[in-house]
Amino acid sequence: MSNSQSIIDIGNTYFMHTYSQFPIVLQSGTGSTLFDVDGKSYIDMVAGIAVNSLGYKEEQLTARLHEVIDQGLLHCSNLYWNPYAVKAAQLLSRLGEMDRVFFCNSGTEANEAAIKLVRKWGSLQASDKTDIITMEHSFHGRTYASMTATGQTKYQKGFAPLVPGFSYARFNDIESVQALVSPKTCAIMVEPIQGEGGIKPADRAFLQALRELCDTKDMLLVFDEVQCGLGRTGKAFAWQAYDVKPDVITLAKALAGGIPMGALLAKGKAAEVLQPGDHAATFGGNLLASAAAVVLLERLSDGSLTKHVHESAAYLRKHLESLCSQFASIVDLRGIGLMMGLELSIPVRPIIEACMARGLLIAGSGTHVLRFVPPLVISNEEIDKAMVILREALEHCGA
Fold first, then answer.
1. Is 3.90.1150.10 the CATH classification of the domain at 3-58+304-396?
2. Which of 22, 47, 180, 286 could be bridged to 52 by S-S, CB 3.0 to 4.6 A?
3. What is the pLDDT of residues 126-160, one digit of tens each?
4. CA 336 from chain center: how many Å?
5. What DSSP assignment string belongs to 155-221?
6. Dihedral over Cα of 72, 78, 79, 83: its sign
7. According to CATH, what is the number of the domain 73-301?
């Protein structure tokens, strides 16, 4: 029995069945290449689902984590200050052109915090100004309020009653949003690029119209940048790719290079809403995660990482466009930067499995979309290898 099969058998015995996992056990990595416990290598186009943006065995990140570990203090209560969290908050605020930051541990936590913030802000305007509009096919997390905000019933099935006060508009359809606005509406929450909804970018005109609507109706605009933020679009923040600034931003995934971390950012009238006692996160902004975040944010600040994203994204898109012209089952290529989706007329699970067998990791987004969210440091050579494998897998699956 292989090392991986032994581990998988034990995992199947003790884990709850919350994931439909592929039969590989990953152990190490370098650059944008991963290795399993049996020594097989894989080009990584998943990056932990847009998490491992600096790839694997990145020198600065490794050194900074060792620095914190060697100091002997990984966590202290938020009753006290720590220098790494302060530096991370300063860099985030400056990069995102926001005023204040709250740190937590994940994207769903960041979105829960955003929901609390906008509802408190609304209730200060009027006692019943607490309704929130989100989008169909959105994804905001799996805890109760964020799951309710998610505009996909498949994630909500079996978990009723849901949190009241949410309604769902059609993505990229401003008239459907306007039809839901009432005096009770306190905020509109939207992903600039829908991730789990099929890698669907917002139209710039749609986001501009949302901004104008919120200004006119005295509502807050929330951008969920959990998956699409922090360099993935080729800008530090996704809103900068559209030049439409929200009042509130949520982040996670890539923020700490693989260490769990989320963040809520706010500006202007939204920045002073939460006060001591309103919200907290025991591990939010701990030293280890914050130190990792500083490494990423420094790379985003000097522009080197986003420059590489622009170049790599253009190179990857050229390859994918070539595949579009060669395979009849490919019906659409969409996305921004290193967040791309290839929609097919056939289910993608067999293609994902065929890629994996040949040494390439790709994730799906729904049943018919291949999702490309590699480490932001991926090289052209790694893209070349990935595309050779993808072509073979498409041919093997009769695409």
1. yes
2. 47
3. 999 999 999 999 999 999 999 999 999 999 999 99
4. 13
5. GTTT-PSPPSSEEEEPTT-HHHHHTT--TTEEEEEE-SEETTTTSEEPPHHHHHHHHHHHHHHT-EE
6. positive
7. 3.40.640.10
